Predict the 3D structure of the following.
Amino acid sequence: METLEQVAALVRACTRCGLAKGRRNAVPGEGPADARLLFVGEGPGYHEDQQGRPFVGPAGQFLEELLASIGLRREQVFITNIIKCRPPNNRDPLPQEVEACAPYYLARQIELLGPQVVVTLGRHALAWFLPKESISKLHGAARQLGERWLFPLYHPAAALHNPALRQTILNDTAKLGQFLARLDRSAPAARTGQERPAEEQPQQLSLF
Ligand code: URA
């Protein structure tokens, strides 16, 4: 069975679309292999392309603040993007770039990780999971998607210079924290993906 590190190696060597030519680094994503929460952004920007790591620029700093507001550190969640290479001048990903990338890499990462909750950041990430839905309608609320939960947020970069949106993302993140706490109370074993008798369950089930 493939591992997340093997998928990352495939991403770093990928030439499936034209973005490969202009990148300095592909950005596979990072986080623990047993993360219960997966954050999916749009695509790498300048800083991410330079470092080969997701969300390490100003949007990443805000994402870390959002995580801290619900008692999480970035090391506790898996963070990646719909596309793994930076589009020129940070333009929106083209449909053919998404098609050349997400079914091969993001889909495998989701399969291997098995997250309980997928948090989409921005409309491009939401569109990959629910193409007909709009972020203005779905942001800040969980919805079941097969065996997982999807929790759409606006993109942190969009909120950096828009105080109203900033407050909306903070409020939505607080709702995410409440939702995670509710999940913890209702099905603590689900976080590991395993059903075990009570006496076999680890003492420390909760990250929060
Ligand atoms: N914006 C994104 O969507 N992803 C990143 O990794 C950084 C900024």
